[in-house]
What we know:
Blueprint: H1 16-34, H2 38-41, H3 50-56, H4 110-123, H5 134-150, H6 154-163
Helix pairs in contact: 5-6
Amino acid sequence: MWExxxxxxxxxxxxxxxxxxxxxxxxxxxxxxxxxxxxxxxxDWFTRSALDTERTFPNMHEGDLLVGAFTNGQIxxxxxxxxxxxxxxxxxxxxxxxACCHPGGNITGLAGYNCAxxxxxxxxxxxxxxxxxxxxxxxxxxNRRLCQTFSGTTNGSRYLRxxx
Length: 164
């Protein structure tokens, strides 16, 4: 279970040290009201506050799992900093692929996936697992749609001849 809560509980993040486990139990009890077998199915559980995250990973200021704001200066090519959105570090053979990189944290794994494609490209190694470029799919889809829409009609045949 995941719940986003204020970093400062009653003004102080250290208050979560005493409150996180009772809060976690309350959430589990609430879910059990709607899924009665849940309580017997849970083997173990733990809670982690935003302060716990910050203590373990100081770069995750106030427990920010996205490691940086999603503002104009922190998205796309500018994530984690202007000009670093291509996954290549400023030192040769250094690559960036954590939650601080585009498209950010959460559980997608896309920063690592995207970085792997850049790294393999730099090494000249084909990424056989990577999908074909979107342009290829779009071209096929457009051609298929045109053929379905216009094939077999006089107007459609004329249209296809004029656009090819």
